[in-house]
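I'll show a record.
***
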Amino acid sequence: MAVSPPQLPPEVWNRVFGYLSAADKFSVRACCKYFKKLIDHGSLWKDWVVILHFHKGSYNNQFWASLRRRKVTSAAVRSAKAKDWKQLSLSLPALTTVVMDQSSKESLGCLKNFPHLKRLFIRNSSTPLLLDASSVSQPLQLTHLSMCDVKFSSAAIDNFISALSRFKNLTSLVCHQTGIIEESVWMVYSILRCLPKLKHLSISTVHIAHHSYSRPKPNLSGQDGASALTSLELINYNDHLLPDDIMQAVPGLQTLAVFYKQSHKELTELRPPVCHLKTWLSDLPQLTTLVIVKGPPVNTFISAIPATVTNLTLRVAGISSEMLAALAAQVPNLLHLHIDPWPSHLGALTAQIPHLFPKLKSLKLRHEHVSEKDFLHLHKLQDLKHLEILDNKPHLSELTDKLRTLTNYRLQVTTFPHYRDILACPCVSQVY
């Protein structure tokens, strides 16, 4: 016999359902018509992104009606067919965020049908695209533009910058694997100059022979627009691609992420080691978040890390006890740490973390080669609220349960693989 749910006020149920994951909401929604109606309340789906595959053709009217009831404003589409995009624009014309996981000239042409579009993510183009202000209904309304593995009709920097300059109100720009051929310093300089409101820039650098271009080195200091940038990501980076004084153009930078193409061992084998990172960090007095993946040895830049850094990611091999101690002295107020010296490991160094970084609120690390005794030392981190384990080994749940018990269950523990934000570019998803 069916059991009716407790007769609580709708606002109470709404508060309860707000703690559920999307998967749990779908399960509750299937229980009864009453819960189905409550779960579809727009406040419960505010940041949710619906993923549309169109594997079995068009979705039915009931499906679209349920999305409209939830007031869904974000969609990721894994189809490049124009007919699928036309159905989407007719069914959800109020979308403000669109992810094109597969893009084509035809699907790009359908973007004009979304008059409220503010955030656009374009990935995996099968053919060269022509992106300009005419591609969207309201180009000055666009605040976020992300392009990854997208090829354009012209690889010339001037054409690319000319197209970008029409989106004057962009605050976030991601350009990864776009096939644009230009010296990296000129690429960064040109983008900063044409987008005065830009706060976040993520760019994959391209190695070209320097003698191929005869342009003089630009003077980046004091240029209009550069001071607005607060976050910079460099993907696939080689240390000789940007000058050591480039950070002087962005003195207000608060987040710097450098994803090096090679580890420090590979860099040494290829050419004499060069490390601009130390100079860069010395020029960033307001830095709060630092991400370093591969690249030079940690001891070459530790002394330059600003004491203002509270969020640190190090995915650099060869971290020693001495390096950890030096790091702790350099960033005494560290709150968030992601440390992964893969393919080496932390091992017994894990037990030193509570002593060295006592203020941590979140921590990401690997459990491999860490003894139970050393791992359980983490309970001494009195302010730790979230622990993410980057590998998932047998019996790990038993160990994390012991750790949670020692922390009186205040600690939330997640293990890999974890949910990945569909809006995050795959190029950086291994870190964020």
